[in-house]
## 1
Amino acid sequence: MFESIKREIAIIRDRDPAIKSDMEVFLYPSFKAILKYRKAHRLYEKKHYFLARLISQRAARKTGIEIHPGATIGEGLFIDHGHGVVIGETAIIGDNVTLYQGVTLGGTGKEHGKRHPTLEDNVMVGTGAKVLGSITIGANSMIGAGSVVLENVPPNSTVVGVPGRVVKRDNVRVPSADLDQVHLPDPVMNEIRQLKASVAALEKLVLTDKSIE
């Protein structure tokens, strides 16, 4: 247990620039939620389902982070701020994953069995993003804030929008080290700029034709 606490302290200190001391970690909702999840998950694996859910629901009320005890979570999960985060029963999360507040790893309501997403290693999911269904987010990928992802995402990708679209591939940066949610490509704005440029070119062509007449 002591080793688990030390690991969680190290993870939070490494990824949150606001923290100034180890003692502050004990005030973090994500620290409490993840430790409670580990305990509840062990009970869940032993089929003590009621006790597992009791622990997880109490943790959700205290922290605002709801992690189903059936979820499978690797080492190094960091939930920044955390309020409103929901992780479903059949979700699988790899190592060194970062989730921001308001993230949902949920189901679509149409599936049975594996109903929730799989996030491979080093994935970052931005504020308010929703990843829904039995899909896989490939390693080293970034999901932009507010995106809704309903389809598989290849490794090393950046996804933005509603519905989420891959706008960058083979990004070599690792999200667990690069937590920038702001400087992501904006495909909608790019299309608007291209449309404006096309309209401006057409207007220029029409005005040129009129001046010739």
Note: The chain has a mean pLDDT of 86.
## 2
Amino acid sequence: MNVLEGILVVDMTQYLAGPTVTRLLAEQGADVVKIEQPPHGDPSRNYIIAKDGRSGYFVQQNRGKRSLCVDFNSEEGREVLHRLLAKADVLVENYGPGVLERRGFGWDELSKKYPKLVMASVSGYGRDSHPDFTDKPAFDMIAQAMSGIMFMTGDPDGPPMPVGASIGDVNAGVHAAAGIGFALFHRERTGVGQHVDISMIDSLFHVHGISLQGPVLTGLRWKPTRSGHQSRMNSPMGVYKSPDGWIALHVMQGQWGRFCAAINRPEFEHDDRFAGLSERQKNREELNNVITDWMGSFSTDDQVLERLDAERIPSAPVLAPYDAVGHPYFETRRSIRHVPDPVLGEVAVPGNPIRLSAQPELDLMAPSLGQHNAEVLADLGYSPTEIKQLSASGLLVSKQV
């Protein structure tokens, strides 16, 4: 039995943050009905890299969902949604503030009508927020800036830099999926649903380690700064030029002696310049130059990594995302999936990062727009005649991509 088998999720999300939530739920076996607005549905259906109107971006984030394309600006469309919500366990949305409230689908209204419903909202600044921020639009870049992540990324003397992936969107999605799980567990014990309010900024701000409590504890006498590709907090820690590209190192005090052996400098273990962390920080440039020269003495990155692995030194090559294809780690862990699609053929997507021993890996496909209109409405008690009438009126829309 799938972990979330029997859980009906109404997915009113688009782009990345919201669809990440419902994708994670679908991968655990939930029945996810994706609500899309006519005439084009989720804007990501034709986003970035597309073939014959089909986007790999959309496929990756919407596998395993059923598509119901219904105009919920109309009274008849809202009635369809209410029938669906009456049966649903979870509603996930990432619309702008007020969009659902103006149509009668805000938490205050739904919690009274469906007291067992768990509703998750994903937004830039959160639903319960300061009035100056509640209505502000936000995407991943904005969340990275506001959360301090961008401030901490880049060269010491250069401008703040965004991270090269949509970590705000995905982080918020993972936090929302966890929150939904907690809320469903609470409902099992109490019979009452609740609202899960996830902010992209909160989700990123949560990752800071010393960058917040350090300045507060020192009265701002110590402030974090950008470190670039080599850390100022620990040494050796960072990215170093290697024969084929770059290699990342993170050596703590417990590995220092073994690291000295690995780089053929056993005398460094007790050298006054490098014996302790504070000494290595003061002399990090000298030490970094030694490490770069040592790596340059090898012919390949594999030789460098083999030597580091022999001494159990935390290290890794700096890989491009596409280097994962065929890589033994990613293939063995099934961290990369090769999934079929009727338009795109085989698509490589990241695998499900949540591994549960009793949950099988599901073979899921992304839906075409409105592919499941008739199926979902039949589940809600609509007759074939009623479904045809709703389709003829333009309330329901379906396309082949």
Note: The first strand starts at residue 8 and ends at 12.
## 3
Amino acid sequence: MLEISTGADAAAQAAWARFVEARPDASIFQHPDWSAAVTAVFGHTPRHLLARRGGALVGVLPLMQVDSLLGGRLLVSVPYGTYGGVVGDDPAAVAALAAAARRMTDELGARVLDLRSAEPRCPDLEDVSGYLGFVRKLPERVEDVAAFLPKRARAAARHARDRDGVEVRHDPGLLRPVWELYCRSMRRIASINYPLALFEELAGRRGDRLWVSAALHGGRPVAGTISLVFRDTVLPYVLGADDSGRVDGAANLLYWSVMERAVAAGLRTFDYGRSRADNTGAVGFKKNQGFEPRPLGYQRYVPAGRRAPDLKPSNPRYALARRVWRRLPLGVTRVLGTWLARSLPG
């Protein structure tokens, strides 16, 4: 018989971690490290659901309550994550966890239950379109990574390296300068940045499974990425770049180097994360790297009489704010982005 419990003490979190680490359909975003870091930095209320059968853990649904100034009360699995949703041993466990999450949504008066599954897992939930994933198997040998990249991307990377003298360094000590580049890029595309504290918290929890990489020109970082490693997959979570004319080539070289590092470490999969289908710039860049988009299986439940908020940057109501955002000083957008991120769970 299935038993559904809420919350997770230290022992339950350890079992939860072992459970998702053993499942090929789970991601770092469904690991307790992610939810713990989000709770510590943003203060969202954990509402995690665990399914047991005969005392054994057979399913988890990491879930957090976000009380948003812009969207009202939301239940999200998981905030700021590319993926999320239910991980279960069998359809019965998945269905029981989804049903418990729907009941919780009703009881808490939330506007929406948002599950960010890579594949749709809950037949009774509404599908959410508009999000694309980019995943590709890596070659087995480091020397084959060059041929793994399309000719155009490879040429841009070599141009940055050979003509402009750009070099790549993997160094956790570069976390802050890479975050600063990321903030600069987010202002340029009129989007908010997550706080440095989130990445510091993740670094403390994930250790050498959080990679910080930067492309340097003349010793100065011009592009950088923070990557998450989970099982055999590396996922560059954020990218930052300055406004120089060498950004594209530097970014190509940066990702090439991360791929080589991943292959050398025995990783098998490169996950470019998600992009909104309407974000043609990001989608185009990833396709030019040889990655084909696939629709993600996001799903949601909206209680009767309520309406899910539209918090996407493409919402016309945010058009003026986005135009203004690009003109604000970087020091202002960094602080405002950190504050707004609590109400915009990604």
Note: The radius of gyration is 20 Å.
## 4
Amino acid sequence: MKKFQQILLLSVSLLPALAQAQLRVEIPGVGSNQIPIAVASFAEEGQSPQQISTIIKDDLARSGLFRVIDAPQAISDTANINFSEWKGKGVDALVAGSVQKLADGRFEVRYKLLDTIKSNQLSSLNNAALPTAMRLTGHQIADDIYQKLTGEKGVFSTRIAYVSKRGREYLLEVADADGQGNLPALRSSEPIISPRWSPDGTKLAYVSFELRKPVVYVQNLVTRQRTIVANYKGSNSAPAWSPDGSRLAVALTRDGSTQIYIVNADGSGNAQRISNSSGIDTEPHFSSDGQSIYFTSDRSGGPQIYRMNASGGEAQRITFGSNYNISPRPSPDGKSLAYISRREGKFQLYVLDLASGQDIHVGDTPHDESPSFAPNGRYLIYATESGRRGTLAVVSSDGRVKQRMSPAAGDIREPTWGPFMQ
């Protein structure tokens, strides 16, 4: 019960080392049936502050779904393509493009995605971007390629958030999905935990101890305005957004033991209690359709995951694979549930098929925690440990593709994957 009690008490580990500004991504293995794709250097991209073709190649390779083949030379989007030659090299798709600096300081980026098998064009893009937006442009092109070749939306241009500690300072940081371009959203001398993205990607809910107790805040990432949404007697913890962004499910102790409540995301009104057990109910998460809430409870004698109606009522137990299951995270399509299970003394990430009741082990360390689905449901980001320090990892929901985001030094915890940006 020790780890579960730590969650309920909202304790935060002392993270001693300094975290560097960037994250390194390592990929120990990839999945099978990869699509062979050649990504050529873009014509004149050397004048850009970011190499667009490199960003695209890194994104596609990291997905595990593509075998990225380097082209021997730059290929402009206006070049004549010998499709038969590329097909003969085992290339199914070819990416070509160009970068031109405009008089106003922006860069015009043009790209084409070509099908070498059918000898036709699959997609194109023409975008003028500020120098600071060139990484985003590269991610957006990679997303377009991913969608055209797999049929599902890519997540390269989405963002993640996580908590790090530098010296005695805690930081809530926001970064690209590949861990690059991180910026602090909040700095504090007191612990910050449980960040969660709003459905529109403009806000973060989190718990801060700056008032010498756990209090739930919502912060607008554009205006930096912060709002207290839960500061009741005792502990206020574990915020989770409703799909429409108007409410948060939280865990409060204001009436005694830890129970689930609903509060308005703008901080107005009073908290509405929706769970009523003799045990401890915490870690709520709305289902994708907003009709249900998954949560962790020890009502059966040990921590297990339950589901109840979003307005309260009888709860149904969901997990049975071990006597210790916590941190429920329903998938965007509502078909599966990620969670942390303790088995043989190890805390490991599992994904449960809600229809069949079958689960699979997808994590690869004994210290997994805080899973969060990518908005397309194909990947999960989670916290783990490497060399006795916190680090982040990404795994596909089937467990076949694994990545490790390793800070050069220090600890990083509590990741959350943001939504598709509108």
Note: DSSP finds four helices and 30 strands in the chain.
